[in-house]
Amino acid sequence: MVRHQALPRFARTPHIDCISTGVGKEPLSDATLIQGWPHQTCDCATESNNSFMKSVAILGASADRSKFGNKAVRAFLQQGFTVYPVNPKEAEIEGVKCFRTISEIPVRLQMVSVYLPPSILLKVLPEIAAKGCDELWLNPGTESDEILSEAERLGLNVVQACSIVGVGVSPGTL
After folding, report:
1. Where are the beta strands (DSSP E) in the chain?
2. In what helix (H) or strand (E) does residue 83 lie, and over which residues does it extend?
3. Domains in the chain: boundaries
4. CB-CB contact of 68 with 61 (8 Å)
5. Distance from the first to the final alpha carbon of the chain
6. How far out from the chain centre does Cα 133 lie?
7. CA 163 to chain centre
8. Pairing outcome for strands 92-93 and 96-97
9. What is the rounded CA–CA span in Å between residue 76 and residue 113?
10. Which of helix, strand or coil describes residue 125?
11. Which CATH superfamily is 53-173 part of?
12. pLDDT value of position 143
């Protein structure tokens, strides 16, 4: 499924099944707001529940603090995500261990945020699909018709938008 606009995002995203079935007692506050969904959430979205992990891989993460691949690492860290920077040339970015490929990451990911040119991303899409993720964020400059077609063929849930803004941070503040 390809979505062409980002949905409003906040610091936490509860399980889709829990929201869509209306499980829970608390009003939806800092969880994802999706138009048409019940304004309830499950216990998995609470900070006290450690089984709910916010995780993101940043493909094209950069050690250069002026690049969006670095700003994304900082934005997601600020929002409490477990961040997995992916860059084959770096050992560490912003104090976080860097992975050479997405397949080296030891967990299934909630999000994958991409800062790669389409020609490189096209080669990596099968690896992303094999790893699995809830959302694949294609930041400006990463998308193309070919990328969108292949992502859809692979069954990836694509969001075409700036993931930094998507988690509630202005890139200009980083």
Report:
1. 2-3, 26-27, 40-41, 55-59, 82-86, 92-93, 96-97, 109-114, 133-138, 158-160
2. strand 82-86
3. 10-52, 53-173
4. no
5. 31
6. 8
7. 7
8. antiparallel
9. 10
10. helix
11. NAD(P)-binding Rossmann-like Domain (3.40.50.720)
12. 84
Residue 106 in contact with residue 84, Cβ under 8 Å? no
β-strands 26-27, 40-41: how paired?
antiparallel
Token pair of 51 as six digits: 């089984």
Cα dihedral: 144, 142, 166, 132 (round 10) = 90
Unique residue bearing structure tokens 């999706």: 34
* Token pair for 163: 């993931």
Structural tokens at position 147 = 């990328």
Task: Tally the residues of the chain.
Answer: 174
Residue by residue, DSSP assigns 145-171 as HHHHHHHHHTT--EEES-HHHHTT--G
Predicted confidence (pLDDT) per residue in 49-83, tens digit: 333 569 999 999 999 999 999 999 999 999 999 99
